[in-house]
Amino acid sequence: MKGYLQTFIFAFIVCIVCSVMLSAFYEGLRPKIEINAEVEVKRNILKAVRLRQPLPASLKDQQYLDIYKQKIVEEVIDVKGNVVPGKMPMDIKEGEKGLYPLYIYKEGQEIIAYAYPISGFGLWSTLYGYLAIEPDAVTVRGITFYKEGETPGLGAEIEKDWFQDNFKGKKIWSSKEHKVMPIALVKGKVKDFYQDERADHYVDGITAATLTGKGVTALLSNMINIYEPFFSKLRKI
Amino acid sequence: MSATPASNTPAAKEALFSRGNQKILRDGLWDNNPISYQVMGICSALAVTTAVNTSVVMSLGLVAVLGLSEAIIGSIRNYIPPRIRIIVQLAVVSAFVITLDLILKAYFYSVSKQLSVFVGLIITNTLVMARLEAFSMHNPPWKSFLDGIGNGAGYGLALTAVAVIREILGSGTLLGYHVIPASWYAHGFVNNGLMVLSPGAFFVLGLIVWTHRSIAGYVEGK
Fold this sequence. Notes:
heterodimer, A: alpha+beta, 5-stranded antiparallel β-sheet, two-stranded antiparallel sheet, 4 helices, 9 strands, B: mainly alpha, two-stranded antiparallel ribbon, 11 helices, 2 strands, disordered N terminus
């Protein structure tokens, strides 16, 4: 009996010591961790909208936050594409349907781009990023993927600049067919498939990452359609 | 498993880096290297070695976790009830690993993003459990600490070696800088796609185990 009691007491003490230590570390480091996550998100929004004055390669955390505050206006839209007054993206609860965050890049009063978060499943993991559209509601201004767990060197290339640069100037709306035409990845180079205006709706694929590419195509189609009600109101065609 | 000096009785004043203690360090680093001799901790060796910077951070993390938890277990080894010793070991290791994960997230955010779940998986790294059970349950804190440092460094050495080979052949870079001259690519050199995938690590790891064992003259017991 004595042995059992000792065992219990020992286990109890170990648990208490470990949990006190962990709580202390967590509480101590939490502000820093939360700022890191916030900077990561804001840095990616700034990257997607392609600021007129490109960001220097490395900035202090606070500088990112300052630039973001200056240039980006946060809004929330509903399913019909109307701006919900008084709501901010951070007010959207996890799993809440029908509300979508929208980030507007302004220089002074001039609107330069609308950005919104995109996410969807790749091959192994959920991909997260931002897509920025020009005020004409047709042309892509930029895209980022900042979180993924795809195969390094293959699917993970979606995080690289060469891939993301392909999207600039592509179109999400076909003025010829007068309908939404999400951007899709081709297997190989676009110029080997399309030479006419259809090339505006395709980007070069990643060699040996066909399935990640299919995921990107699917998530773009999904997200572009979700935000279409909002952009259709902007379009003056 | 190596012969572990059974010094359960408090030894007479021993120098911090006496010959015996140096041997403990060297054992893990070379003579009894966890990766190439004991073949432990292979899972993470495959996962984080596509680039040198992630494997270096991973190795430093493991050195810290293993050293500290071995020291803790070594100092309370005589009080741990035998029935729950594995659970106690796990609790200590988990506490250190989660702390490490928090520190990485706070101060090395980009690296922690790349390492993702693999830091957490140090908890289940066979190497950690094996050293705690085999060594620090029978040895005083300082010796245990040295064993942890030695084994962690040995693990790091193997990991970094694999990572250097994989990053150069797989991506043409070292620590993110291009090392393969552009002229090679012009002459038809292509980055080896196999090297960025896990199977590539198996090949490299196998070659490293072979090389190490033939230099050290180790033969698997029958």
